[in-house]
Amino acid sequence: MFQPGTAASGKPESTSLKRVVFASFAGSTIEWYDFTVFSASSALVFNRLFFTSFSPTVGLLLALLTYAIGYLARPLGGVIFGHFGDRLGRKPVLIITFMMMGGATIIMGLLPTFEQVGVAAPIVLTILRITQGIALGGEYGGAALLVSETCPADKRGLYSSSTLVGLAAGTMLGTIVFGLFRTMPQDEFFSWGWRMPFLLSIVLVVIGLWIRMRIDETPEFLKVEKSHKVSKLPIAEVLKHDLKRVLLVCAARSGETMQFNIVAVFGLRYVTHNLGVPPSVYLSAMSLSSFLSIFIMPLSGALSDRIGRKPVGLLAGIASLVFGAAYLPLVTTGSTLLISLAVILMLAISAGIGNALPSAYFPELFKPEVRYTAVSLGYQLGTVAGGLTPAISTLLYLHFGIDAIAAYLAVAGLLVIMAFFLLPETLPRGSRSGF
Questions:
Q1: 0.70 exceeded by pTM
Q2: What DSSP letter does each residue of 375-399 carry, written as one string?
Q3: Which of 81, 252, 335, 429, by CA, is between 20 and 30 Å from 96?
């Protein structure tokens, strides 16, 4: 476990720490830009271009299942890259995952459609989506540890929030870019415009690689390496000694990602196709939510440094339950203002508070010898439920109506509350900071 109240680097405000925080933020931003562009395309593009031989409903479900496959692959990526991250170091793994994610995204922008090459198109799209999922499965744990194992313990919540602030920034950037191209004339957009958000990733990948090549290995891993405590098989140790905590981390992330994907994917499809709301309205609300959460996450992370991790986690759970109950009543009004409010409550406030914690809290739950594997496994297992959510919620809606989606949101909120209630506090009172 971390020693509270000490700076891992010895120089909390050093140029090295600032570089690490920026590297974690920038890398996560680029990775989530890629992921967001794919998410929006799954809801609005792929069923028309890659699954055209099926009925519209089946084509949509297949597109959403392709989206889900990326999430199903993430635990595998967490185990694979967690193993090497615990044995070889955080930095080399982060460079590899970044190249995989960026390369897959760029190739997606060059893919021929079903009309051009037939069934090969959705097959290659699915393979690239799996590659994305494996890469992102190994990315988060390393990005979180990069900061949490370098920064001072009494500011770990604040500094470590940079990892998932990158998620918000990447989501915002991806949504803005996709939204701008979506305003093109429909024929042009479906002909070539949809490719441009993917291809623009080339610039971001070059920048991201340059940033990550310049960072140092974390002090915590160097200590493990120097003391010859490197685990031979981290996953075996995690399953033997830390399974309960891994499952609680999984539950916390399951609830959050279920709600996120109902709002970001199912909600986008629902308001545009069932309520006749222009996609730009919902995409703009998502962009604004991401922008607001860039500020909410560091504030919530700093709050966790002051009052502890559990209270902030429970606050996130309560917000997800309350705002989850309000989401559909607000959305189904069809009002632009109320739809925007619903998205902001869910993606900016509820998710913003919840996403402030994982990069500081989850690493504190596990010893450094197996931390990359444990954090990655628990976090990425939790995202599987979220990845399946757009397809599940579409089926629930088709068979049981909108009330089933409301029940889904409630279950997700309760799951978050239960997980944070059962997880232990990791921040002793004596090490809590002031503002």
A1: yes
A2: HHHHHHHHHHHHHHHHHHHHHHHHH
A3: 252
